[in-house]
Design goal:
Blueprint (H helix, E strand, L loop, with lengths): L1 H32 L3 E4 L21 E4 L5 H8 L18 H14 L6 E8 L12 E5 L11 H8 L16 H4 L17 H6 L25 E7 L12 E4 L15 E4 L8 E2 L3 E3 L1
Parallel strand pairs: 5-8
Antiparallel strand pairs: 1-2, 2-9, 3-4, 5-6, 6-7
């Protein structure tokens, strides 16, 4: 009887220890999942191929997501998945600029952070000159808030170019686009060649790919070339920090674009209410 009690006691101790290890592991996974941001050290652009190089523009420190926002992350906040190509670890797409700033605020509130944006859906933005955008929400910022936000165009390019660790690459993390980007050549069933044509991309079943499945850049950031185009905060204009305009900036190229659009220095634009199966985003936060 005594031996049986000792055996039961040992069994209980082993079980408790195992449960404790499981809980510790789960907590560790959760911590790792919430830590997918990189602190980008500020300074002057070092990449000679950057639009920022030699502009005497000093960038402040900021945090930026290692990955593009995934469908799982979007669904957890918005209770929906608008993406054309479904998969938890695929980047969310078919999201407008307006929906992305709304996501930023809702996620901030859920995580106990101060929302970065003030969103007025009733007041038409006087700085928006688009003839296509029928929403024109007025969106302003709380510059000192610690909540999630879109990167500015300057922050996006600085991070994509490697920041203070830059090695003067053409694409974000390499001079070989195939090392770091999903684009029209490699995003389908087989590797394509020749000139870009939509029919070729479509018949090859090109689409988005799981985030982080190519090599990162010098700062440990993934998919800043290719996969999905990424919304930035700014209006598109001659200046990188235009205060008004008809369209918002996107950067980085995508799974159906050619290699030139995947260069970190390439500047693209789209109406703020626009959506596409190649249009996503990543998050930033103030330091």
């Amino acid at each position: 009887m005594k031996k049986l009690l000792i055996f039961l006691l040992i069994t209980m101790m082993v079980t408790v220890s195992a449960c404790s290890q499981d809980n510790s592991s789960a907590q560790g996974d959760k911590k790792e999942g919430s830590d997918n941001f990189v602190l980008v050290k500020g300074g002057y652009s070092k990449n000679k191929k950057s639009n920022l190089y030699d502009k005497k523009l000093r960038i402040s420190d900021f945090y930026i997501g290692k990955y593009e926002v995934t469908q799982k992350e979007w669904n957890e906040i918005m209770d929906s998945n608008p993406s054309q190509y479904k998969g938890d670890n695929l980047p969310v797409e078919m999201v407008s600029w307006y929906e992305c700033v709304e996501y930023c605020n809702k996620r901030s509130i859920k995580e106990g952070l101060e929302p970065y944006y003030n969103i007025d859906k009733e007041k038409k933005d006087p700085n928006n000159s688009s003839e296509i955008d029928d929403m024109k929400w007025t969106v302003t910022i709380n510059s000192d808030a610690n909540g999630y936000r879109l990167p500015t165009e300057v922050e996006w390019e600085y991070a994509a170019s490697g920041g203070q660790k830059s090695k003067n690459y053409t694409y974000s993390g390499s001079d070989n686009v195939d090392d770091v980007a999903w684009y029209w050549i490699n995003s389908g069933d087989k590797k394509l060649d020749g000139e870009w044509r939509w029919e070729k991309v479509q018949s090859n079943k090109g689409q988005t790919k799981p985030v982080g499945s190519k090599k990162p850049n010098e700062l440990g950031l993934y998919d800043m070339s290719g996969n999905v185009r990424e919304w930035c905060w700014n209006w598109y204009g001659e200046a990188l920090d235009s205060k008004s305009g008809a369209v918002r900036v996107w950067r980085g190229g995508c799974w159906l674009s050619d290699d030139s659009a995947c260069k970190f220095s390439y500047r693209g634009n789209f109406d703020a209410n626009g959506k596409g199966a190649d249009q996503g985003f990543r998050l930033c936060r103030n330091k």
